[in-house]
Amino acid sequence: MxxxxxxxxxxxxxxxxxAGRLRDAFADGRLDxxxxxxxxxxxxxxxxxxxxxxxxxxxxxxxxxxxxxxxxDAKPAPAPGDFPERKKDARPHRHGLGALGGGFTGVVMxxxxxxxxxGLGNGGHWPSFWPVWLLIPWAIIALGGLGRxx
Length: 150
Hints:
By secondary structure, the chain is mostly helical. Helix 1 packs antiparallel against helix 2. Helix content is 52%, strand content 0%. The protein starts with 11 loop residues before the first helix and ends with a helix. It is built from seven helices and no strands.
């Protein structure tokens, strides 16, 4: 790395780096608004390294980028063409009627039982089978679910 002399002129890139240090110091609360404005104004009037040094003498060295802690422990992405293993569903698979219609099966069964109890209460004279109106959508749901891949 070349050694700079105080009388040497600096580049616009150097000026931008110093402006960044001043902005960082202001954002960190190391400089208040008047001090930040004053140093920034001076930055755009000076031309040599010796004049730059007093602007940042009392500030910490340049900050470097740090990876946020949230990302540091994350697994890296798989290589192109490699596919991650799919996790198996932890819930047990239901079998029988429960698997066919889900929670709606219980609703249909409760209504069929109510219809049956009403018929027993009437001495064996059951009314028309009104749970059929629930069995129709249940059958559509159950038949629609049979073709799904798991």
